[in-house]
Amino acid sequence: MTTQDIHSHAHIIAQALPYMQRYDKRRVVVKYGGHAMGDPELGKAFARDITLLRQSGVHPVVVHGGGPQIGSMLKRLGIVSEFRGGLRVTDKATVEIVEMVLAGSINKEIVQSINAEGGRAVGLCGKDGNLVTATKLQRTMIDPDSNIEKLIDLGFVGEPAEVNPTMLELVLKEDLIPVLAPVAPGADGETYNINADTFAGAIAGALNAKRLLFLTDVPGVLDKDGTLIKQLTVAKARALIADGTISGGMIPKVETCIEALDRGVEGVVILDGKVPHAVLLELYTDHGVGTLIRP
Ligand SMILES: Nc1ncnc2c1ncn2[C@@H]1O[C@H](COP(=O)(O)OP(=O)(O)O)[C@@H](O)[C@H]1O
Ligand SMILES: CC(=O)N[C@@H](CCC(=O)OP(=O)(O)O)C(=O)O
User: Fold this and answer.
1) Which residue range is the domain that position 292 belongs to?
2) Whose alpha carbon is nearest atom 12 of ligand 1?
3) What is the atom index within ligand 2 of the atom nearest the CA of 137?
4) What is the CATH number of the domain that holds 138?
5) What ipTM score was computed for the predicted complex, to two decimals?
6) What is the pTM of this model?
């Protein structure tokens, strides 16, 4: 660095310092969605943000999805895939591919890109150290023919039963960055596919995280006119679900946010993962860039 570099960087560091202190030694769980992953430059910016967080004293934990990537692999293999209520119907052949893509290629790609930026990342899934165990998800839906609520069988789709953070605590103590794939073992010996938002919510709750960030493909929660809502209380978020402003994939996401807040997470943010350096912009600016949901 030159003297001139030091002069310009000193100014930036002075500005960032109060924010860094706010999150110092605190856990921040970042859910990195499959839609936010496509572009290599964005992936690099994400890896750099996560590395910088660790270097500035924060303990980031990455939970990733990979829905679109699982979809392309299933297509290549000629396996038909369908979603019900936002969840992938997962038969035996599908869960093998889900594990291969999530705990295999995507997980290792993220680990490698964080390490390439100078971070020290370790990839795990629910199976490692029994981090998260799963039970088969029991989901009911209204049957359109009979209009009666019926139990639907989504196959090997699970929900977190127990989070056992011992392994994560060890990883965090060693100053490593955990990168987690939402695949978990059941007590029945089967492998379960868990929605990545749900998995991230359970991890953030178990770690008592200061923040849980959901990187998605919209700027945050939008109102009826499509304008970003910067802050939401739980009561207001529930009202927006009830009046239909929040719909589709945003419903389970916001519900996961509410559950995470109930489990003691201080604040949850939904933000656009397609904005370069979204994570740093959210944490290290006054008003953030997404929707902050608080109790
Ligand atoms: N009020 C709302 N504000 C923002 N997005 C909404 C809203 N209601 C529904 N959505 C939809 O929710 C989607 C995000 O959910 P989802 O596709 O499941 O995200 P991801 O794949 O990142 O987990 C948005 O792309 C948008 O189409
Ligand atoms: C049960 C279920 O639907 N699991 C998801 C897991 C991946 C995921 O959630 O990825 P995104 O965050 O990119 O959507 C799936 O199979 O697509």
Assistant:
1) 208-295
2) 250
3) 1
4) 3.40.1160.10
5) 0.96
6) 0.94
